[in-house]
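Review session, final week

We close the course with one last complete record, chosen because it touches almost every idea we covered. It is Alpha/beta hydrolase family protein, a protein from Tsuneonella litorea with 296 residues. Go through it on your own first, then we will talk.
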Amino acid sequence: MRIIGFVLATVALATSAWAGAAPTPPRGKGQFRFTRWAGPPLRVFYYRPPGAAGNAPIVLVMHGTNRDARRYRDEWAPLARERGFIVVAPQFDRTRFPGVEGYNLGGARDRRGRPVPRRRWTFAAIEPLFDEVRTRFGSMQPTYYLYGHSAGGQFVHRFVMHMGHTRLRRAFAANAGWYLMPDPKFRYPYGVADSGISARRLRSALTTRLTVLVGERDVVDDGNVRRSRQASMQGENRRARGHAFIEAAKARAAALRVATPWTLSTVADAGHENLAMARAAAPLIRPRLKAPPATR
């Protein structure tokens, strides 16, 4: 009986130790289902490079109008490996996040223009997703980077303007088709009039680090450039509209007497392509590692 008791005690201790051990953070490419927010479940693609430690930067990547998060993850993965950061790309599908309203505009209003409860905004997924990523990867990072291309670029700059009290470290809005101008002369969704964005919230947004990336050759109308009267007032093409957005931001910051770190960077010889924009953003997130860890 003593032997049996000893064996049972040993098994119990081993089981307890195993249960209390921290799970090994996943590495390489993978995906998971994210449900810890008020909206619908999200399919999330990630890449964690070999050797990424608990202090590795976390980059949330917002896909374009094709809702192809996997491709965006795949294009960012080599950059993440070179520089030792984690890439996380949530997918907002057309069924549960329909139209421009459901994704590009952050879900703040429905397709009839009616306000949506803030906790169900598409924007509202970002902060709890960051918490989920920290837990899954054993991260100690207190902040995150947010990058979006095309429709994702629209999401990102509007996230900066709408959302307060976030842990965002720096945002990148690349090749957006049109903008929420920080100008009260224009009504939502083209300007901040009737947007619910107060002067105080806008002042805070203008102090957030936001870089607008435009392609030097992103001047072609591929059928996805909005041609409404209000959008056309922002410029003839995506490149021109990016410049107009930053100029409007500088003017509004001056009127509000606040210094803004918002900047624009033109990517040479780049058209409407995510990879070129990602390559321009990556060095602003982390320098290239001297010797990237070998793939196992």
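Two points worth writing down before the exam:
The beta strands are 28-34, 42-48, 58-62, 86-91, 144-149, 168-174, 210-215, 263-267.
The domain at 27-285 is CATH 3.40.50.1820 (Rossmann fold).
Good luck, everyone.
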